[in-house]
Amino acid sequence: xxxxxxxxxxxxxxxxxxxxxxxxxxxxxxxxxxxxxxxxxxxxxxxxxxxxxxxxxxxxxxxxxxxxxxxxxxxxxxxxxxxxxxxxxxxxxxxxxxxxxxxxxxxxxxxxxxxxxxxxxxxxxxxxxxxxxxxxxxxxxxxxxxxxxxxxxxxxxxxxxxxxxxxxxxxxxxxxxxxxxxxxxxxxxxxxxxxxxxxxxxxxxxxxxxxxxxxxxxxxxxxxxxxxxxxxxxxxxxxxxxxxxxxxxxxxxxxxxxxxxxxxxxxxxxxxxxxx
Length: 276
Prior knowledge:
Layout: E1 3-13, H1 14-20, H2 25-30, E2 44-48, E3 56-60, H3 68-76, E4 78-86, E5 102-104, E6 107-115, H4 122-128, H5 131-134, H6 142-152, H7 159-176, E7 183-190, E8 195-201, E9 210-211, H8 215-221, E10 235-238, E11 250-251, E12 256-261, E13 264-269
Antiparallel strand pairs: 1-4, 1-10, 2-3, 2-4, 5-6, 6-7, 7-8, 8-12, 9-10, 9-11, 12-13
Helix pairs in contact: 1-3, 4-6, 6-7
């Protein structure tokens, strides 16, 4: 399994969260507390929003803990919204185009999990991608395919609904090929203004996902952020808690989608269904 985080709030340098926070995502990539995948060394990526319409992105197949360029960029890039991901591959090869986040227009997308039994119905899923989107697929992961299916099913106009239709379509295709429980996922996606996070699994056993309770919570993770976070509500979403106080994090329940916008964090049930 992979790991990811999303930050949304007052502009900060990427290094404050990626490197300086205790048990940060970069620390987790080398030594996670998870027994399933204690190391995520099959590449990483970070996408951020700044002064341009399209988000910036840096991806590499090097281990995140040992990439000098990531250290340099994170020390200089300041952003109010960014997504970062460290990869532990299952089937797709280790290559730059398979590293998250995936990008289309203003949208960024990260995923942790898998489509189980993917091979028999892989072709059917690819065929379902809208023709005008198909040639934008660069890699070979189920994660990127999920993103482009969600775009096909209306993510840009109805973000959570587009992902619900994607999930419903994947599950139906899987059932048609004899795979009863096919989808495990946490996903984070954003258009640069609003951040969305989803936790879902076909069998009700999705990977973990958490968010900070408030701005003060994030300050406690890194006390250097006191001044930077003084002017507004700030949220951090993570696959695995940062710091040594996991009990202070808000766990996102199974089959739940959360929308983060300004000071609001709005939860709703996540209900996959087939597109009409």
